Amino acid sequence: MNRKVISLLLLAGLVVLGCVAAGCTDMSRTTSGQSAPPAGQETSDPAAEGAGNVSAGNNRFAADLYRQIADDPAYAGKNIFFSPYSISSALAITYEGARGTTADEIGSVLHLPVNETLRRAGFAGLDAALNNGDENYTLRTANALWAEETYSFLPEYVDTAARWYAANVTNLDFANDAEPSRQTINRWVEEKTEDKIRDLLPAGSIDAMTRLVITNAVYFKGTWVKQFDPAETTEEEFRVAPGETVRVPMMHRTDEDAIYGYAETGTLQVLRMPYAHADGTELSMLVLLPREENLTAAEEALAPEKLDELRDSLTDRRVRVVFPKFTLETEYSLSPVLAAMGMPTAFSDDADFSGMDGTDMLFINEVFHKAFVDVNEEGTEAAAATGVVMNIKSAPGEDTTPVFRADHPFVFLIVEEDSGTVLFAGRVVNPESA
Q: Which family does it belong to (predicted)?
């Protein structure tokens, strides 16, 4: 989708991708997180500014979450892959029902625009653009609410979720049919992700205390503009650690037409590999490859300001590309991670989600996330899903969900180019490890 088309869509009243500095709106967060813009601070183009702020906030959250996972010793030497946009989308819908400290913490961790109009219009616009369609690739994102059929939620909350996040409500019998309800939600996720994400909600995650589940699913399948010839793929060594290698299939694109966006610094090489597109928004994979085996340089470059500088420095030139084929499947129980990042109240008895039901009886029991990516000679297929499970506080069950662990020697992102929104982020330590 080129910028001219985006402008036309904006003029027509659709909220689509814009990219402005995250600091354009400097407003104080209220305890409800639902404030309107103060007099004199309304923007002339809230649609574009909202999309830009949501995109910038998502990218900050992506860097923060990556760092939180990567710095955990339990994830050392493991692959990482997740969708920050999927997690942000599900938690933004959750945030709409949060109040007080609960809202403040969630908004801070996600770097959400504090202005209600900009926040909601931003997510609506990004979703509209991502679901716009293109004949050369498949890209879609979807949200949904799954509510206990006997429990009353505020009409304002339900309407907000439907209007701005296209998250419609399906009533389920969590109280009496928890397992069939879990399977229903998981089937929705499978359908939205072409069966790439299965069993998002593990057995036992839904029970008689569950009142609401908020889900997001993202799916992408695209082909490279410059595909790799499978005949050129050979088994070669990949260094997983100093003095340690594994044999993996490495793809080669070294011909005269191997023109890519490329930049280098004293510590990094940066490569942009675009996906084929027609009228839709442009997507690409951005690879941050450290010159040494230490990933620190690549991980530090994930900071939004540094990432923007690197993207701006790319120039098209011939590059001899040697890149591994790999498939990753990851899963995370994010409640301890998100709590450590600064939103512990949402998972505690002090949680306030009165914007959902008019009471302070709900809390987040768990945030589940799964992601999948397959990179080969033809292109990339990637999917992710997030489930926020809301329980009632009367008898919160003990969380016994295991935590999956991940990490790797290069960092890769799948980026929507007009706004710079990071749709997927990851690193690969051992391409043979699924």
A: Belongs to the serpin family.
